[in-house]
Structure formats: C-alpha cells, structure tokens
Please model this.
Amino acid sequence: MTEPVLSVRDLHFGYAPAGPDALSGLNLDVPVGATTVLLGPNGAGKTTLLHVILGLLTPRAGEVWIAGRRQAEWSRREASRLVAMVPQNEYVPFDFSVLEFVLMGRTPHLPTLGMPSDGDVTTAMASLEALGLRHLWNRPVPELSGGERQLVTLARALAQEAPLLLLDEPTAHLDLANRTRLLGLIELLAARGSTVVFTSHDPGTVAPVARQIVLLREGRVLAAGPAGALLTSENLTATYGVPVRVARVDGLPVVLPGASP
Amino acid sequence: MTIEEAPPLRRVVRALWPQAVVLAVLVLLALFVGRYPGPFWTPPWLLWQDDLAARVVWSLRFPRVVAAMLLGMSLSGAGIVLQTVFRNPLVEPGFLGVSQGAAFGAALAILGLGAGASPLAVEASAMAFALAGLGLSYAVARRFRFGGWVLRLVLGGIAVSALFSAGVGIIKYLADPFAELPTITFWLLGGLSGVTWPDVLYLLPFVVPGLTLVVAMRWRLNLLSLQDESAFSLGSALNRERGLLLLGAVAAAAAVTAVGGIVGWIGLMVPHLARRAYGADSRLAVPAALLLGGTFAVLCDAVARTLLAGEIPLGIVSSLVGAVGFVVLMSRVTLRVPR
Model:
C-alpha cells in the first residue's frame, strides 16, 4: 500500500466568515497515480475543494496533507513544484504566444527573479510535443479555440513537472473529439506517473479514466470508490437529486436521465 | 527548427538596442532644440561662444530633458504594471487615486501659499497627496465587502479619485480667478517648464528604485496576468507580489506627476505600443515600454517648448499626439477586453 500523495481530513471551509460551510467534514485519500474524479452537481464544492487543496483558500478546520506534509507547511515555491492546477477555461487578456504561456509553467524551477533558459524552452516544447500541440507554439493564446486553450493550459501544467495535477472541469467546454482526446491525455499522464485529480459534473464521460470516483454533494462526500462499483443509479440519484439510471455497454457504465422503466 | 533562448540581458539588448539608440540620439538632439537664440535651434558651437547659450542648455534644457525622459519611463512603466496586474488593458497609472491626489495636493498648495508658491512646495504637497491617494485607495479597498481583491482596488481607486477631483473643484471655485486659478489650471495641464536639477534629484529616489523593481520582477509580472489559481499554483505570492509591483510603479508615477503635473495618455498608450511591437511577454514588453515612453515624452516636451513662442502645456501635446496614436493603434490591432 503506497502512501497517499494527497490526503484530506475532516475539512471545513466557508466563504463568508459567519456563513455556511461550503465544505463540511470532507475526507479524501488519493494514492499515487490513482486518477481521481470529483463528481457532483454544480455547487457541490468541487472547485472549492481544489482551491483548498491548492492552498489558495484557507480552511476553517481540518487538514490537507500533500506528499507527507501539511499543505500550509510547504513554502510557495515547494508547493508549486508539487501541485499544478489547470483552471476551468483560463482567460488570458494579453497576446502571449503559446510557448511563452507554457514557459510560465517553468517558474517553480527558476531562481528567484530568474527568467527561463534554453533548458526551460526545451522542456516547454517537450510538453507541447507530448500533447501533440507543437505546431501551435507561436500562436497567440487568445486566438486559440476553447479546446486548444484547454490543452495548452494542460501543457503548461505538464511543464511544471509537479507530481499532483488538479484539473477543474477539464472536459466542460469540449466537443466529443476534444473530450476524448483530453481524457486520453489524462490516461497518458497517469501512465507517466502523474497523479491526476479532476472535477466533473458529467458522470457519463469520466468512468473510463477514473481509478477512483468521489461523489460530492453540498460539501460532503456521499461515496467514494472505483467507477464500476460506485456509478449505480441509487448513488447518482442521491448525488444529483434527480432520477438517474445506469446501463452497461462493454462493461462500462452509461448514465441516462430518468427513472428505470 | 530550433527555438533558442538567449540569456535575459542579451535578449533585451538584441531586441531593443535600436530603441535605446533612438532615445539617446533624441535626448542629445533635444538639448539643442528650443527657442534660443532664435526659434527651433541652438547651434552646438554656441556652447563655447555664448555663456547664456551654455547656461540655457546645461541648466535649463538638460534637467528638463532628463525629467521628461524619467516622466515618460515612469508613466509607461506604471501603465504596463497596472494593466497587467489588473488584467485590464484600459487602466492607466493615475488610476489608484494618484493623479487626482497629486492634482489636489498641488491645488491646495497654490491656494494656501498663493500664486507665487515655490515650485518645490507645490511638488512636495502634490507628492504627499498622490501617495495619500494610493494609500487611501488601498485602505478603502480593504474595507469594501464586495468582490475580489482586484475589483475592490479598482473601485477604491475610482472612489478616491472622485473624492480628490471634487476637492480640486472646490479649490478652483475658491481660488482667486486672476492669480491662483490660472496657476492651478496650468499645473493641471501638465508641463516641465521651470524644472531644474534639484527637481531631477528629487525624482531619482522614487523613480530609480521603483522602475528597477518593475524591471527585475517582470517575469513575475507575467504570472499575475493569469487567473489567480494559475498564478498561485505557479508559486506566485499573489498579494505580496502585486503589492510590491504596484508600490514601485505607482511611487515612480506619483513622483513624476508631482513634478510634471497631469500628463495624460503616455501611461495608457505606450504599453499598448510596446506589446504590439514586442509581444505581450513582459521580459521584452516592460523594457520596451520604458524606452518608448521615455522617447515619446522627450519628443512631446521638445514640441511643447519649441513650437510656439509661449510654452504649450505638455499634457496637451501628449494627449493630442497620444490620442491620435491611440486611434491608429486601436484600429490596426485587436484588443481583448473582458466583458
């Protein structure tokens, strides 16, 4: 049994000081290499949880452990070498080229006030290459399509060379082809040794790549486990609050709205 | 195809040496442009023949040209920092209460000390209130209970600017229309007439550290143009780095505003020009903005003091040239403004 790379214990978080908990008493373990999907309806606390894991938000109570230490004990630079984040739909207001944008992913490995060197450019180009995006290197990021931008942001996270990758709704704005491609890339990253944690509100697409699925509702974990066992109509009906049925095609769960006939 | 990455300094030098040469040549030329002995031109050999010409060039024009260069560099450096930190290409450096604060400070000093107030007293008061404007915007932003940090700071800046702007209005209303009011109005239009070496020395402790900080942190500035969670995950200490960059940039802008009055458009337009010419990456865009800003301000100042027998306020020249330039720029380039 390997040590979990990420471990969340009895986590409480709220946005307003006296407001309600957005996350209440949440527990989570992510073993090394186990692609984990945080699945739940809009507003379940998925993005909030990613931000707390990242350290951007400070919890009211509870602990986040990353690579054997409390999240808050890592310095900013150490943390940035451990955890990379791909936000949902990154908006870039200026005309950075794809290469410049991906180079920013090298920042955790630069000296204080340092600038990227030849070696960093090689790593950035290799990240683009790994995702099949090399041809885009000189294009302005704001001119890319939504799908390309998502993949380029993933390349930036890859250039960061952090063992833990957090992706916020990576498939949300993608068409079928890009979604398939992105999920394939997540599998590739997992095969290369990264631990990927990503959120989704769509149970249908994530089952093939998920080693572990965590069902979230109203800031709590309803259930966690392997996709095959977890994606049942009872569990999903409880998670989403509407009747859901689950069929099987080639052993994989397919989620359909509505009650069983 | 190989994509090569030169060390930062060599990269900047290689891309920007023509700009630096243009600025240096322009500074040199500007020393000999003016209205002594005749309109437009002081022949260089007069420096050895005519004592007055030598005094005009070394004691009046030289400090003035240096001040214009520092003013242009500070305003465009501050402009590119504010636009990037606020992730909004329409922000200008006076934005965080600095311009209106300086205007209020200057107007107050002129009202209190009379139209003959010593320029250094007016500058000191303008500087004090420019920094007060910045501090107040920050303090107000901290108290707001609405939106994220950036939005609060923007709103704080708008509120404080409006407050000082109202104060300037009251002072103008109270001022003697034949003595103090024209002095205030002329100050508000911006200009470097009467700038001497002590003014330049007084600028240096704000401008040099401020701009050095901005240049040194320009890669970190790139990160701040990303969304919070991205910049944070790349190791940015968001509020500390934003605070440092804003403080350095705005201190420089406040100092030159205190000396030169409100000179518009440089801080808004030059960053766009720099990004358009050299790309959005701050590694080149920041030094490019400094050089282009210095060049533009030296040019505008030379026009302001040479074109007519009387001095044209620098703010008028920079706005005129800047606005026309901006229209041309905007119609030839796509800007992305968040909606």
In short: The radius of gyration of chain B is 20 Å. Chain B has a mean pLDDT of 88.
